[in-house]
Amino acid sequence: MRVATWNVNSVKQRVPRLLPWLDERRPDVVCLQELKLADAAFDDLLGEELARRGYEAAVHGQTQWNGVAILSRVGLEDVVKGLADGPGFPDQEARAVAATCGGVRVHSVYVPNGREVDSDHYRYKLEWLKALRDVVAAGPEDVMVCGDVNIAPADADVYEPGAFEGHTHVTAAERGALGEFHALGLRDVVRDRWPTERIFTYWDYRAAMFQQNLGMRIDLILASGSVAARAKAAWVDRQARKSAGSKAAASKDGAPKVAGPSDHAPVFVDLDEAPDGDIGPVVPPPSAPRSGKSVRAPR
DNA sequence: ATGGCAGGAGCATCCTGA
Known about the structure:
Elements: E1 2-7, H1 11-25, E2 29-33, H2 39-52, E3 56-60, E4 68-72, E5 77-81, E6 96-101, E7 104-110, H3 120-137, E8 143-148, H4 172-183, E9 186-188, H5 189-193, E10 219-224, H6 225-228, E11 231-236, H7 247-250, E12 267-271
Parallel strand pairs: 1-2, 7-8
Antiparallel strand pairs: 1-12, 2-4, 3-4, 5-6, 6-7, 8-10, 9-10, 11-12
Helix pairs in contact: 1-2, 3-4
This protein binds one DNA strand through residues 9-10, 12-13, 34, 36-37, 63-65, 113-115, 150, 164, 167-169, 202, 204-209, 216, 218, 260, 262-263.
Keywords: Hydrolase, Magnesium, Metal-binding
Organism: Saccharothrix lopnurensis
Family: Belongs to the DNA repair enzymes AP/ExoA family.
């Protein structure tokens, strides 16, 4: 089962990239963030194209800002929009949606930005993370939290730690809130797979930050131990962050403007089948051991 | 310290992002 998460920064703007990306990468489950449109508009925009590709969609959108979704072609059950007892700013925003896909409880999340340290919005961010933690803690063991967490887990996850001193995304309180998910047993599957690599998932549009690889790793796939143990591969799809064509080609008279990228890249994890056949009817041969770990150990 | 770039609302420019 291939799971991806992508902050698309307006799904309306990203359609010319999203559909070819689905066809090329063929993820089974996709968590999207920053849809920036309402549920009905999402359905009008993509409903038919997604159905043609075999995806069901759980959408929790709103006009203008935020908005999250889960696309799945391995089942989409028990959809929950928003966070139970979650805080608002001042009203609840469309920042979380959950569904059970292929036997795994999947959460697509867009964590509040925080804006300025110790601001109202920063406190809202920390409260929101606590509410998400409580929802995950109360849920099933096989769980994934995927999305834009707006926290760089460690100094190695920002291009220049000194540039972020006193800013959000790197404070001890934010990292502590992220640590609560690890305390529940969740793993950061990309960092587990690449312990010492310099990996970013977000690059500011300005000042050619992507071309210089000056970014941050703030889009994460967190998975319970039971799910993380099935991870065969985990990576960032940098290709999706690249500009499509040369400036010369894009600026030709009358030529349609080439669709630009989101400022975030997608993150992927490939999971082996569940040992007990959660994602399909798997009947072991009579002599096969019924308990214990999968024979197909992750490489 | 500020701007750089991009998107949405909506029609001038402001808010948000991180």
